[in-house]
Amino acid sequence: MGNALRIPALLRITIWLIPGCAVANGAVAKFCPPRWGYHPCMTTLTSQDTTPYAGFWRRSFATLVDLAILAVVIPLVGYLVGLGVRPLAPSPLKVWALGNLVALLVAWAYWTFFESSSWQASPGKRLLAIMVTDAIGERLDFSTAARRTACKALSGLFFAIGFVICAFNGRKQALHDFICDSLVVCGRTTAAAGAPAQRHSRSKKRSGR
Known about the structure:
By secondary structure, the chain is mainly alpha-helical. The protein has two domains: 9-47, no CATH class; 56-201, no CATH class. The chain is built from eleven helices and two strands. The protein has a two-stranded antiparallel ribbon with strand order 1-2. The two termini are 16 Å apart.
């Protein structure tokens, strides 16, 4: 395992999308990068993972709830910022640019704050009883949550294919999840929604040091 090939996240995603990669086949599975003691493309190992991963539709409905909330919050924040800059008499172009910047920052702060909080979920995810964890079922730190939120911009490219791929892999990961080694699982507590197979493997590694 220690000498196994490590490959970039984007290439790993491509391999996962190859027909037959999700079944036990040595010719393809041997190129899947080991992650805490298992090969994600080998069903003989992943079959032990009973984690309830959140699927595409559940995540989509949660996102719709979050967007509805942001549709109220962003104009309110924008209005308050507008009051502050009004004495400066900015040009229409500057107002437009500032408005877009405020929208991006508010959305980024919204998902980053909530998904790194004790909830481990945005209000939309909380309502749908799903949460974000790292690859071993633990809470994301702020920097990882911030990077994950920023990487959603990549998931939105090319007809949002980065979001859609979560419907076609075993752990229901979107592109930004692959990049940041995160998971979206069902539940409102880590105990109920953790990743027992990965956590067990990590604890074995720690005890062996």
